[in-house]
Amino acid sequence: MPKDTGIGASPKRREDVRFLTGKGRYTDDINVAGQTHVVFLRSDVAHGRLNGVDTSAAATMPGVIRIFTGADFEGVGGLPCGWQVTDKHGDPMQEPPHPILAQGKVRHVGDPIAAVVAETREQARDAAEAIVPDIEELPAVIDMKKAVEEGAPKVHDDLKNNLCYDWGFVEENKAAVDEAFANAAHVTSLELVNNRLVANPMEPRVAVGDYAMHDDSSTLYTTSQNPHVIRLLMGAFVLGIPEHKLRVVAPDVGGGFGTKIFHYAEEAFCTFAAKQIQRPVKWTSTRSEAFMSDAHGRDHVTKIELALDAENNFTALRTETYANMGAYLSTFAPSVPTWLHGTLMAGNYKTPLIYVNVKAVFTNTVPVDAYRGAGRPEATFQLERVVDKAARELGVDPVELRRQNFIQEFPYATPVAVEYDTGDYDATMDKLLEMIDRDGFAERRRQSEANGKLRGLGVNCYIEACGIAPSNLVGQLGARAGLYESATVRVNATGGLVVMTGSHSHGQGHETSFPQVVADMIGIDESQVEIVHGDTANAPMGMGTYGSRSLAVGGSAMVRATEKIIAKAKKIAAHLMEASEGDIELKDGQFTVAGTDKSVAWGDVTLAAYVPHNYPLEDIEPGLEETAFYDPNNFTYPSGAYACEVEVDPETGKVDVLSFAAADDFGNVVNPMIVEGQVHGGLAQGIGQALLENCAYDEDGQLLSATYMDYAMPRAHDLPMFQVDHSCQTPCTHNPLGVKGCGEAGAIGSPPSVVNAVIDALQSGGHDVTHIDMPLSPSRVWGAMNTAAQ
Amino acid sequence: MKKVTMTVNGAARSADAEGRTLLSDWLREGLRLTGTHVGCDTSQCGACVVHVNGEPVKSCSVFAQELDGAEVTTIEGMANADGSLGKVQQAFQDYHGLQCGFCTPGMVMAAAALLKENPQPSEAEVRHYLEGNICRCTGYHNIVKAVMAASGQAVEPVAAE
Predict the structure, then answer these.
(1) Among candidate residues A550, A721, A670, the one with its CA nearest the CA of residue B138
(2) CA-to-CA distance for A768 and A507, rounded, in angstroms?
């Protein structure tokens, strides 16, 4: 029976009312008195020497207040990178500077050259068109393998070459892995591309910078998933503003998917320029601008090899990946192909020996960083594709080959440095098979064939490491930040609570789900709990929302703070009832003394805390407000099994997704409705990657997919109704809620089963196709069918 | 610059517009009706859909000056007279048809237009009609359910599948 309230219930989302009535407050809805507008002039070439910028004509145009160029940022910090990777020789990665506005060179289409601040956006746009940059075009490097060739044009003249790092993991295991391959009964290898994507939250990025003369403080309103991180990076590393003089507000944010984690030039610009001109400065990205300035995702080229023994046990795994960094290092870019990718290469399997090599490469393209899943989709895709290919080569059932190699005992220490605390991979696979009627597939295939179509069924598993993560561990791995989360619980005199969390909600529904937890703990109505987030002036220092960490880390901090509240409230209740503190129980919002009929209500205790007339002032302070910082001791490890059924039209190569089923283990679930919604969205993005989406550059570095007419976003008619299940629950062992995180699973787990299904369909039609690179567009599928041997 | 007057959500409203001012900007900046969102610049995403003289229109694709005298309904005008959520809005909340909320105003306006034209659409008809509205959060699953539910058709409740 579904619960009505508290943990496990699905109350309607309270934030929906404002979003459904047009009362949301997104950053572009904010206008500050006296506001000016900035429009950036961006490079239209991928690589060039910037010999000068002629702003003379633009400067005299109507409404223009000031034009900034790179020269205005001499002596101002560049955008910092938050993660340092050490290469396989023990040397630090190559780390180029990243100026706010281009200095000396432009390095990708979209690199900002100049910024026009004007009275209106239209005036700023008109003037930007009148600026004449003097750019001497240089040969661009776009292809990663060509970029690391000897003599290739260098993206950064001051670096040795275009190789950011050459990472080996675990380098000490390499010889043993090679030996296992030499002794293998069977080796399956696969070369593949994990296509470059653009996150595309529907709300484009916006920034409003404001400067207050009276106290020399700055405020930035920005579309961020982590306002405190922006405050720290921008204040300490770019503009030199102490945190107590800088407030960052991320109000309603219209989706993030990773791309709103990072600190961007435009928000630093608006904060900087507002102080320079002593007026607020606003920037609103257009969609085309977003395509050439939001950090992109994925873009790996990989060779993966799987070694098996004569009984089909996986004995070793070896990969070589080229990972595109783009022209500059975005905030967390170096961590994505390394610690968020290499550590996941064991997947759900007990492969004893693994070696991962990653070459991160600078190219004349937009910087690449975390996008929903970040490294884990790339790991899952290559692993689940090579396992499927192995099953086909060996003529065994792909489900059974997976099961045979599943990790069965937990905790399990992988050969790639992480320890899975819990999981039950057979349980999610059993549930999946129950959901998809695998026995009926042959008949469904027969029906499709009768209609002239090819039908395929693809299955895959996934594991992810999320709830990111322990600060001491990520510190050892090169993070230049901690990854705890914070919460302050402020109880008001009349019993209502405000929870100020460092987590940020940009679609996840924290304003609804977080109160479910606190209300459950105290036994009061959820309506008594309000969540405040997204403003550094209110919330304690927090690291924000990404890596499916909000409930696992932020929720845990909230639990710890609420526990402190309850402990103090019990002391007050004990005093009020003249009882021993150890005898006080709290249930349904009532404090009782065990074994007696004495009780006081929650509201009596909270009132006493703030009107301490009868109060143990000698023992405890008045008031009821507590803060907790929670730093987990491990990642969490959600896992699952996914299946996709497709029909391929052999005449056109068009793939239709007929059904998609996802059986996930997220540990405990606080709000099933929200969890399912997260999975639906992730699946759409994963299916989008597999079939539709591709960020394309030509060989000169022109961005070919810079609008929604060129970049194929999944639309309603591209997708089926999804079957999702989260009833397999092995709770996380190390956080107080036993939760694992659900935000990225769908995007991580879905691309391989789509591709596996298409390969299954084509092979059923007698086409000897073993792999097609994503997106599996009609032309690619038709091309593969018609070039492969029949 | 020219003063443009329209009947917006039942009331006469005026604001200046340049020749190039789009209806979306006129509503957002001129009237401060910021419920209408702009998510792209090629009339693809549909976040800006409003009703003009009863028809769904992408408000980023028309000039405000050309609509002097028109009757416009935006997301701010979709609630019931008592302020409670209108039928389509309520279905979106009941079926979790929104997450970040950014595409939502356009989705609701498009869905309302569909139901006016086709009161009992099939799932395929809903998906086809919403082709011009992009959502990045929901995978459309719960949007489709919400629209079906708003049309009075039986839909399984959320989190009970």
Answers:
(1) A721
(2) 43
Which chain A residues contact residue B16 at CB under 8 A?
none
Q: What is the pLDDT of residues A347-362, one digit of tens each?
A: 999 999 999 999 999 9
Of A202, A672, A724, the CB nearest to B47: A202
Q: How far is CA B40 from CA A290, A682, B37, in A?
A: 9, 22, 9
CB contacts < 8 A, A to B, total 191
Q: Which of A673, A685, A707 sits opposite B159 (nearest CB)?
A: A673
List the structure tokens of A476: 């050892």
Which residues of A are less than 8 Å from B131 in CB distance? 715-717
A735: pLDDT strictly greater than 90: yes
Planar angle of CA A77, A267, A287, nearest 5 degrees: 130
Residue A637 contacts residue A423 (beta carbons within 8 Å): yes
As a whole-number percent, the residues of chain A with pLDDT over 90 amount to 97
Chain A nearest-CA distance from B58, in A, is 15
Q: Of the candidates A255, A288, A721, which has its C-beta nearest B136's C-beta?
A: A255
- What's the alpha-carbon Rg for chain A, to the nearest Å? 27
Output the six-digit token pair for A75: 């002596």
Q: Would you call A203 and B92 a contact, using CB atoms and an 8 Å cutoff?
A: no
Choose among A413, A469, A425: nearest CA to A634: A469
pLDDT in tens, A685-699: 999 999 999 999 999
DSSP A110-179: T-EEEEEEESSHHHHHHHHHT-EEEEEE-----SHHHHTSTTPPPSSTTSSSSEEEEEEETGGGHHHHHH
Environment class of A762 (CB within 10 Å of its CB; exposed 0-12, middle 13-18, buried 19+): buried
Residue with tokens 């805390």: A609
Ranges of chain B whose pLDDT falls below 50: 161
ipTM summary value: 0.98
Q: Which of A639, A488, A466, A635 is nearest to A545 (CA)?
A: A466
> Could you tell me how many residues make up chain A?
790
Mean pLDDT, rounded, for A185-199: 98
Residues 107..126 of A with a Cβ closer than 8 Å to B: which? 122
Give yes or no for residue A717 having a pLDDT over 90.
yes
How far is it, in rounded angstroms, from Cα B34 to Cα B26?
10
Dihedral angle, C-alpha A184, A188, A193, A199, nearest 10 °: -80
The angle that helices A745-764 and A778-787 make with each other, rounded to 10 degrees, is: 40
Give CA A300 to chain center in angstroms.
17
Q: Give the integer Cα–Cα distance in Å for A470 and A475.
A: 8
- Is any Cβ of chain A less than 8 angstroms from the Cβ of B42? yes
